[in-house]
Structures are given as structure tokens and as C-alpha cells.
Amino acid sequence: MLKPDVVFFGENVPRDTVALAQAHLDQADALLVVGSSLMVYSGFRFVRMAEQRGLPIAAVNLGRTRADELLTLKVEDQCEQALAFLL
Length: 87
Description:
Elements: H1 15-26, E1 31-34, H2 41-52, E2 57-60, E3 73-75, H3 79-82
Parallel strand pairs: 1-2, 2-3
């Protein structure tokens, strides 16, 4: 059986993936969340880590996120429109 390299709802994120993300966060100046409500803890935990480190946190998302009260900046727009300037 073939499975894409993704984590489906109800599955655990592999520990090495979490450790690598934490290592990158340790070197980051800020955290940008794109297109996630952060309702699942596997993503929200990184926002909490960034907040504990005093990093600014920005999000691009339509609607409420679990981290709205922790965000330094929130852009309520479609991701492709909000980030088009990167092209």
C-alpha cells in the first residue's frame, strides 16, 4: 500500500519531524503560519513555542485561528493573494 508523506487526521507527527521543526524554530526570528486554523495541536504547538521564546507570530488565514490572541499580525485573506508579492 502506498501512502503520501503526510500526516492524516488522528495520526502522530513523526518525532524526527517535530525535532527538526523545533531546531528551525530555535534559529528563527519570527513564525509565519499560512493557511491553517491551528485547531490541531500538531501545528499549534509551534505557535506556543514561538510565543514562549518571545518571537513575533504572523498568520495568513481566512477566519478564526486557535492562536488569534497570540498573533502579532493577522492577514485575513486568501494565501495566494496575500503572498503574491513574493513572486
